[in-house]
Every structure is written in structure tokens, then in C-alpha cells.
Amino acid sequence: MTGLEIGLISVLAIVALIYAGMHVGIALSLVSFVSVVLQKSSFGLATKLLTLAAVDGIANQTFAVIPLFVLMGLIMSDADVGRDSFEVGDFFLRRIRGGLGLATIGANAVFAAVTGVSIASAAVFTKVAVPEMLRYGYNPRFAVGAVAGSSVLGMLIPPSILLIIYGILTEQSIGQMFFAGIGPGLLLTAVYCIGIVGMAFLMPGYVYDLKNRFADLHVPQDSGRELTWTEVAIKMVPLLALIFVVLGGIYGGVMTPTEAGAVGALGALVIAIARRRITLRSFWNTMLETGRITASVCFLIIAATMYSRSLALAGMPMDIAQAVNALDAQFGMVLLIYIIALLLLGTILDSVSILLIMVPIFLPVVEAFGADPVWFGILSVIGVEVGLLTPPLGLACFVVKGCLDDKRITLVDVFLGALPFALMMVFVLILISVWPHLVYINQWF
């Protein structure tokens, strides 16, 4: 059996096991272990491979960046940063056509810069932004779609957990991955905003509830209290200062990503205490959740390390390269196949699973064409994030639906609302594929 056949069978086996209810890390480890046993007829060799993957996979101080940035994000989420960001966006943009949609996008972009987790964004803004948009007569489908669509910014704008995982998985600089995520993150934010304004003028019936079909869902009260400039400063200055210190420290070469994560976690704790939005009990729960997420991510990285080594042992990267050469395939065709695979897997698997399965297979191939692994990482993250908005899995859409207070807004409404934003993501994916320099923000100026 060739390495290509082994790789294809392993992917199908992993997908089947995950869909059968097995944890992603266990599925990766099990398939890798069995693959090595069958290839070398040696149970001992497979055991040693698993042991080495467990030791080498996370035996590096770089991994401290994971719990530190997770802790910072969770503390800022508890401190109601999402609500503050939306209120400030509402203050500036409410009177523009589609303004609350723009406020949701902008607030999510700011929130992404201190959380790095899409699901947290979806949960927070479902509670914060959707009721406000319904109050002002927005179409509920658009309201939930804007929240679901903008939540994916959390996995692209640094500090992003997916960028961290990709950096560790491919041995790329996490700081460089963060730097590369800024340009595409801003680009996607801009495309979302342009799309919302365009829909507000060209398709007002999609943005606003013109026929009053959901009138009984609207909150029966007026605009409420306006913010003062002092309140705007109190809400945003500490947050923007934290973003500047953390990301500026990394990009300026003052701090390593690990050091910046520690400073960020401390700064987030200071902000939460100053605003009196954290208690000893909530802080303890945050620490426990940080440990749970960190353990889960580290286990996935160990499993992915073992999987990539089993593929290398089978000779799959070499077989794929030979197959590409035999078919005289161009780089564009290989990239198109990869993107289509990401989009298709996104309908049935979560983002982390797709990244851990597909990157070890395709990265050696695209590197053979001379492609930059950092650019490839940004492309991969955007591709897998589309899956958060597409059925039947669509994790962000399920989170939005689960956090809604009114059950009359169905899951179908959420998916239909998120569809334009998924299409805009595909548009950005095409742009970055055609013009890779869009990833390198330092070349923009």
C-alpha cells in the first residue's frame, strides 16, 4: 500500500471516528498508532512514536503562550469587554444605515484582539447585539447572521488560538503568525462592513424588518441613555491600551509572545478588578476553564504531532509530490483542491480538527512549490473558519442559536443570516489566494 493510499484511508478513518463520537485527539492518536503498527508490524515502535510525540510535541516553553492568552481572553470576556465595545460602536454608528450591523462587526474586531476565540464572541454578542438590533427594527436573520459572521474574526485577528496551534504544529514563529493575521483580519472586517452597507441600500428587506414580520420580537422601548464622551473613554481607553501593549510589544520586538501573554493576562486582571467585574469565585472558575482549554489544546497538538509523523513514516508527502509531478499539476490546481477540501470538511468537522488533519498532508506539497508557510497558515485558518457558518455543523451558528432567548428565531434563520457572511469570507479567501502579499501588512505602507 502506498503512502498516498495510507493517508487517504487515515483521513476517512479519522472523520468516521469523530462522527461516531470519539474525541478528535483520541481519533488522531488511535489512527496514527494503528497506522504505524500496520506499516512496521511493530507494536513497540508505535508505542515509542506515541511517547516521543507526547514529549517532543509540547516540551517547549513556547507552549506557555496558550494558557496565558486563553486566560487573558476569558478574563476580558468576564469583564464585559464585548458589551462595552458594542456600546461604543453603537454610539458612533447607530445613525448610519445598517449602523448596528457595522457596530457589531467593529466591536467583534476589537473583542477579537483580546480573546482569540470565535465561540466566545458568538456567545457574548448574541446576548449584547441581537436584542439591540431587534429593538431598532432589524431583520432577526440579519441580526443573528451578523453576530455569527463577525465572530469568526476571533480566529483570525491576533491573538488567535488557531494561529497559535498552526504555528506550533508547523514550527513557525507565533509572533510572525500574529503579524500576518492583522492584514487579512482588517481586510475581512472591511469586506463585512462594505457588504452590510451595500445590503442596507440594495437589499433593505434583508437588513430591516420592513414587513414587520417579527414585530413581537422587538424590545418595546426607545433608544435608552446616550453615552457621554467620558464614558466612551472609560470603556475603550484601557482596552485599546492593553491591545497596544500586548501586540505592540510583540511586533516591536520588546516581548516574546509568551511574555506578551503574561503581560496581557495581568493587564486584563487589573482592568477587570478596576471595573469591579470579577470576583474570587469567577476568577477561580476562569482559572479552571483556562486549564481545561489548555489541556485540550495540548492533547490535540500531541495527537497531531503523532499523526504527522505517521504520515511521514508512510512516505505520504513524497508520494503526493510525485503524484503532482506525474500529473504535471500547477500550484494553482493544488491550492484549489486544498481550499475545496477545507470548505467541504468544514461542513462536517470543527476548525481545529480540519487544521490538524489537512495541514500535515498539504504543507510539504505547497512548500515544494516554494509557497510561504505563513501565508499558507492564514489561508488555512480562513478556509476552516468558513465551516463555522455552514451547515450541518456550523458551530458558531449553533452557539448563536443556543444563546438566543427567543426560540421563534430558528436555527434555519441563523444559517440563512450567516450565508452572506460565509460568501464574503470565501471572497476574501480568493483574494488572498490570488494576491498573497495581502498577508504581509508591512508591505502595505
TrEMBL record:
GO terms for cellular component: plasma membrane. It is found in: Cell inner membrane. It comes from the Bacteria. The chain crosses the membrane at residues 6-38, 50-76, 109-130, 142-166, 178-203, 232-254, 260-278, 290-307, 375-400, 412-435. Residues 12-437 form the TRAP C4-dicarboxylate transport system permease DctM subunit domain. One of its GO terms (molecular function) is transmembrane transporter activity. Its main location: membrane. This is TRAP transporter large permease protein.
